[in-house]
Amino acid sequence: MSLINHPEKVRRLYKTIRRLHRSLPEDLRVLGDEYAKAEFKAHKNAEPQFVSTFMTEWSSYAVQLSKQLGVRGAHLAKPVGSNLQVEMLDLFTEEQLRQLFQLYSEAKGDNEIVTNDEKR
């Protein structure tokens, strides 16, 4: 049995991610902080069936990022990030695909994002 309750685990994971982001280049740090904040806030009252996946994926992100950054910071570590496997896209909802595209556009500096209303 865990000595730490679920809300405390979520808080610790979020703080860990924010701490890891401090070692990123400024533009990536800001983008990562904003994205993590929005995701954790959006999932604050998530249905129980989504909580396990949410925690697993963000924990994996934190572990991967800590390995990539290394102990000396981003300037001496491996490249940050990893490629998304095409098979994973089949598991995404339409809303998640929109969010992924929006994140991609923001990372590339493309401010023209097409919304559903604009497509019609």
From TrEMBL:
One GO biological process this protein is involved in is: mitochondrial respiratory chain complex II assembly
* InterPro entries in UniProt: SDHAF3/Sdh7
Chief localization? mitochondrion
Q: Which UniProt keywords apply?
A: Chaperone, Mitochondrion, Transit peptide
Q: Where in the cell is it found?
A: Mitochondrion matrix
The record's function comment reads: Plays an essential role in the assembly of succinate dehydrogenase (SDH), an enzyme complex (also referred to as respiratory complex II) that is a component of both the tricarboxylic acid (TCA) cycle and the mitochondrial electron transport chain, and which couples the oxidation of succinate to fumarate with the reduction of ubiquinone (coenzyme Q) to ubiquinol. Promotes maturation of the iron-sulfur protein subunit of the SDH catalytic dimer, protecting it from the deleterious effects of oxidants. May act together with SDHAF1.
The record's subunit annotation is: Interacts with the iron-sulfur protein subunit within the SDH catalytic dimer.
Protein's recorded name: Succinate dehydrogenase assembly factor 3
